[in-house]
Amino acid sequence: MNDIDNAKTVLAANLKKYTRMDEAEIREIVKTIPITVYAKRTVLLRQGFKPKHSYYLVNGCIRQYACAEDGNETTVNFFTEEESINMFSFLDDDGSSLYSLACLEDCVVVECSDIEKQGISDDSPDIRNMKRLFFERQFSELQMNLTEFKLKTPEERFAAFVKSRPELLDRIPQIYLASYLGITPESFSRFKKRIRP
Prior knowledge:
The protein is 42% helix and 20% strand. The protein is of the alpha+beta class. The strands form two sheets. Strands 1-8-3-6 form a four-stranded antiparallel beta sheet. Strands 2-7-4-5 form a four-stranded antiparallel beta sheet. A hairpin with a 5-residue loop joins β4 and β5 (73-79).
């Protein structure tokens, strides 16, 4: 099975799980959904540009980051399989992105192009409800991450990350993980030796 066929299978399973659509409706929608394969290191969106899409990541890993005026990058989040990237929460008042998105691996994504409609679309109530659920999940995760960042020491953040997302330790370059946790790469290495089983 190729990447596109696999993506269609995943999408059909999610539509079945999150909507009340019947098999025929799901097959019809999956046929029309735009699925794109991006190579590792592809930048999907640059900070300061207006996004054309929100994304649903079927396979791969995407890094969300911001670049300061001095050129230093700070990793804000990582998105992996079956996670949505709702751009509404990443825009400034002018509708430009506050962040960049880059593929850390080859990625298979669905591009949801209704971003310009600011939440108003011709989608069925089932699809709108599914998008709302994904947006709520993303917002909840952002809030939890922010709370952890503010309340925990660097070593506690590292330990919590190892517990909640251990699969990313071998999947993402250490420099990005350290940036995400707000620690130096040297501290990351030290914590990794002490904490990781």
